[in-house]
Amino acid sequence: MRIIAGTKARMTILPPRDRTTRPITDRVKESLFAILGPYIDDAVVADLFCGTGSLGLETLSRGARYAVMVDTDRDALMRLRKNIEKLRFQNSASVIRADVFQTGIPLKIRYNSPLPQDEPELCDLVFVDPPYRLSRDVSLESQLGRLLIKISGQIADEATIILRHERRTEPLLCYADLHQVDQRVYGRMTLTFFEKKS
Question: pTM score > 0.85 for this model?
Answer without folding.
Answer: yes
